[in-house]
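Hey, resending since the last one bounced:
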Amino acid sequence: MLEIAAMNSTNLCATLFFRLVEKGFSEKEVEKLVKDTYSIVKNGGFFTREIINETLGALGWDSEPMDSYSLDIFMALIKKSLNTEVVFHGVN
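The structure tokens again:
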């Protein structure tokens, strides 16, 4: 897999899109999933993949729509596109 930190916003967007399509989402579903995920994290806070997926589930998504790699790509895209600080913490 490509090194996420080295990708520009265009490559991140394309990689996320194709990753989610490979998981079985349609183009429209990818757009909605990205918008819904952004609506969850846009105001900041502490989020885990589990929290994000639970919240997405409450919005009608099937279980686990965002796997770890897709979420990493999404967060890198937010960081680069919006010039926002995103801090990752390992959770054991």
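Residues 46 and 87 are 9 Å apart (CA to CA).

Sorry for the duplicate.
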